[in-house]
Design goal:
Layout: E1 2-6, H1 10-19, E2 24-29, H2 32-41, E3 46-49, E4 54-55, E5 60-63, H3 70-74, E6 77-78, E7 81-86, H4 93-99, E8 102-109, E9 119-125, H5 130-138, E10 141-145, H6 149-160, H7 162-180, H8 184-202, H9 207-214, H10 220-230, H11 233-253
Parallel strand pairs: 1-2, 1-5, 2-3, 4-6, 5-7, 7-8, 9-10
Antiparallel strand pairs: 8-9
The chain binds 1,4-dihydronicotinamide adenine dinucleotide and (2S)-3,4-dihydro-2H-pyrrole-2-carboxylic acid (A1CAB).
The site of 1,4-dihydronicotinamide adenine dinucleotide (NAI) has 25 residues, from helix 1 and helix 3.
Catalytic activity: L-proline + NAD(+) = (S)-1-pyrroline-5-carboxylate + NADH + 2 H(+); L-proline + NADP(+) = (S)-1-pyrroline-5-carboxylate + NADPH + 2 H(+)
Family: Belongs to the pyrroline-5-carboxylate reductase family.
Pathway: Amino-acid biosynthesis; L-proline biosynthesis; L-proline from L-glutamate 5-semialdehyde: step 1/1
Amino acid sequence: MKLTLIGNGVMAQSLAKGLIKNHEVEIIGRDENKLKTIQEKIPGITIKILDDNEDITDKNILFCVKPYALHSVSARLSGKANMLFSILAGTTLDTLKKQIEAKHYVRTMPNVAASVQFSTTTITGDKEAKTTAVEIFSSIGKAIWVNTENQLDIATAIAGSGPAYLALIAEALADGGVKAGLERHTCYELVQGLMEGTSKLLKSNHPAIIKDSVMSPGGTTAAGVSQLEEGAVRDSMIKAVNKAYEKACELGKK
Ligand SMILES: NC(=O)C1=CN([C@@H]2O[C@H](COP(=O)(O)OP(=O)(O)OC[C@H]3O[C@@H](n4cnc5c(N)ncnc54)[C@H](O)[C@@H]3O)[C@@H](O)[C@H]2O)C=CC1
Ligand SMILES: O=C(O)[C@@H]1CCC=N1
């Protein structure tokens, strides 16, 4: 299937890198230099500068611009697309329908791990497009269909923004090791392995069981965990997800 990405930013590039393995991919953007660099980095991709009257008739569009750019970019599009897959945080199906013509509308929330085919993507929208949407996003990781846009906004706060939270934790853990005297490259190697191993365990174990199994009475983990509790790490995580969800709702009202 041919997919046309509109936007040449971070997320469009992450998606293009992953999707090119199984699809024909075209990327339309406003920055010629960036497009040329993308073509060098992703062999096989087609690049195109966004016209003032960009014909999207019958195309399958992945809309990848910032939410605030929706109006200005959609004003430059003409014709009726086949499927419109939006990745815009918060932006509702109703808003998309008012701005861009398409036969089917789908909201998706992938993440940057799309570039390594490990995105966790939440999807909702026209039921007629469900099979195709799940197929496309399964080719770049895990695809989860939800029934409401509210669920997608909550998922945005976990898996869309989530790589930033986990990267922040990874960096902080490494900083802790450096403070204690271990070389930084070794700390990053440890953290990378730790994240990968824990992710594998999480596939078949409840988080509380993993935590309990590591925490020996009077041991190192109990000492570390009690410090995390003092820093209100759990509470901060819960609040972070809720703040991000509120922001997605706020973006949807603009
Ligand atoms: N960065 C991430 O991890 C994720 C981002 N998203 C969503 O993806 C979308 C894009 O985000 P990023 O790639 O991070 O942003 P970015 O700033 O890297 O890319 C935005 C793109 O929009 C284009 N653009 C902006 N205004 C334009 C205009 N007036 N005319 C033509 N092109 C215009 C820019 O040139 C750029 O190609 C956002 O809507 C965001 O909510 C969704 C999931 C994850
Ligand atoms: O920060 C944002 O708004 C976008 C949506 C999810 C990840 N990045």
